[in-house]
Amino acid sequence: MPTADIRTQWESAAPGWARWESTIATWMEPATEAMLAMAGVEAGARVLDLASGAGSQTLRAAQRVGAQGHVVASDIADMMLYHVQKNARAAGLTNVTTLAGAAEDLTVSAGSFDAVICRLGLMLFRDPAKALRAVRRALRRGGKIAVVVFTTPAGNAFMAQPMQILLRHAGKTLPALGRQ
Ligand SMILES: C[S@@+](CC[C@H](N)C(=O)[O-])C[C@H]1O[C@@H](n2cnc3c(N)ncnc32)[C@H](O)[C@@H]1O
Asked: Does the C-beta of 49 come closer than 6 Å to ligand 1?
């Protein structure tokens, strides 16, 4: 699917995603804290949050890095970033900025981040390998990336069963693994 169509899909999903943001934050809390710890998101760090959505993990990262640190929330959908900005303002955080664009086309200075995080995004990218090459360039030497992804349908009934029901009603079949 072309990047423009992917963007359009996520722009239309953004209001719903934002509405459920606090539920998602609670549901994802243990995985989020593990991701932040594994990426080394600590006081003073410069953090890139890829595929930020409405940004509940962005805000957690911003709280951890504090006033001396900084978090850039990046997403393909402008409407997601609108919600990040709104939520950061409401939380009184001034160390969050946003960057619109596909992760595959990331344009940031080489070596400009200490840590990259990506929660429930990487497995949805059109070209994850290209995005990871861009991440590698963005990270300083010794910088870390940590991501949260879903496993395969056999190991993830929570996602696979509703998906099977939706596919059945839509008269579609499950795409082969690795295809969208
Ligand atoms: C399932 S949501 C997860 C959002 C957020 N990280 C969270 O955990 O709440 C996936 C996000 O990935 C974004 N996205 C999808 N494809 C993308 C791409 N190629 N580059 C950057 N963001 C992308 C969507 O706009 C959406 O915000």
From this structure: no
